[in-house]
Fold:
Amino acid sequence: MYEKNGEKYFVVDSHMHYWNAAPDNWVAGAEQYAKGWIECFHAYQGLGPPETHWPIEKFQKYSEDDLMRDVFDEGHVDIAIFQPTYLTEWYKEGFNTTERNAALGEKHPGKFIANTRWDPRDGDAGLKELQANVERYGCRGVKLYTAEWRQGSRGWTLKDPEAYRYLDACQELGIKNIHVHKGPTIWPLDKDAFDVVDVDHAATDFPDLNFIVEHVGLPRIEDFCFMATQEPNVYAGLSVVIGGLMYARPRFFANVMGELLFWVGEDKMTFGSDYGIWEPKWQVEGFVDWDYPRDDAFADYPRVNAATKKKILGLNAAALYDIEVPPEFRLDAGEGKPAAREDATLAPQV
Amino acid sequence: MTATLTGVERVLAALARVRDPELDEPITSLGFVAGCTLSAEGVARVRLRLPTYFCAPNFAFLMVADAYDAVSATHGVRSTEVILEEHFAADAINHGVAARAGFARSFAGEAVGELDRLRADFLRKAVLAGTDQVCRLLLAAGIDAAELSSLRLGSVPASPALQRLRHRRAELGLPASDQDPLLIDPATGEPVLPDAAPLHLMRARTTRVSIDANTGVCRGMLRHRYPDRGLGEEE
Structure:
């Protein structure tokens, strides 16, 4: 929790990691990718305040103590949601798998929610693994990478019939939240991995599922916005938006937030630190203090207040994941309903 | 010596006409040109760099290929070598461009023509973003959206933003003469009607914000990776 000026914020970090990308986990023959990947992540950290930068050695493999301190003791986070990233082609035990995340979660009851993942190219075996993960770890969300290369395949889309089998399975297994990575490059080649049109199709055909577009479709924020305004079950995952822009490019950050608040709405935006890329402390504190620059260029955007920030920092994600929020953190009457699907009525139909 | 310097300047000027298709900025001003030499024998050597090891290889290929073509066509250049450095697909891209193999042949199994569509797709975004840059000034001067839809390109006050917008439209084969409307659908070239103008301008604004934000992230990443400035880099 975080308190400022008498306002109390319940913080759900809806996008974070516990990875091992140190040389002891690199696959022989794929070292350059394993090294390139973590150095790329490390460069993203460079967009945060200098006093929060880590040396590459720590960044490759931070400890459980680092994480518990950075996220919970100092980072104001109440509940953190693990989003796994496998990358087993380069990392022997994976980058941060469901198992690795859940093992940490089991040591700290009540602190974490462990999401899992699937890839439709895994066929029937993948469906079994999904079911096993749900039974073993109680997963209620998944993180998907549509752009991942695999044995000659250069990615997949949520529109694929194989993906629909998995989305059906999610509904049967009680998974509600589909986090889709639509953002900075993973592995896109000529398949346009940034394209969000597949989310549009799936969101229409699976109205009971929530689709959280992580990194808001960067570099195609506009495509995401025009799609999200028409789909009541599409949400904006703010990881990278706050971490990558709020400190480094404050005017661009204000513009992006203004666009998202206009098209998507404050009930459908969720905070994610993307830890260990960025620590949540400066993001939470900075966002609570944030407002648009005093400038006519921002006058047309929806205004923000404490209720807006309470929703974005935690109440929206809490609603998506059925997290019980203590009464002192809830909104007052008239301040809206977190994660309400009927939001975004401000925006015109495109 | 003077002649050599002038030659390098010509090569750099050629590189300044190569744009990052995603960000719609010259690769020089973005800081992507790490080195550029021209020998007395007319051998041009260019080194390019990108913000991350995993920058999208499709865009990277376009930039390396465009740089190769631009430098090769420069007066005084007899042979050209363009090398993309420190990128996961550098070998495939460098060899493919040097062998004039094209993207599809450099990356076996890729669909032919998809890269051209991607380039056009982002060029249409550049047209929308450019529309916002031109129209923002006019809106601030009190002209409303419906009025903007009746304006012709020739009646808009000249500015670098307007010139850029017309260039982008012409590249896509969209109407770009003095008599053509300021507001057009970037996919079809059809005029935007007064009723549709407010929404069109909102979309243009969001597109410009998206490109700006993406450029901001890329510049920040590049600076972290390479503290030294690139040739011709501008903030």
User: Anything to note?
Assistant: Residues 197-225 of chain B form the longest helix (29 residues). The helical segments of chain B are 2-15, 57-72, 90-98, 102-106, 114-140, 145-148, 160-171, 197-225. Chain B has two domains: 2-112, 118-216. Chain B has eight helices and five strands.
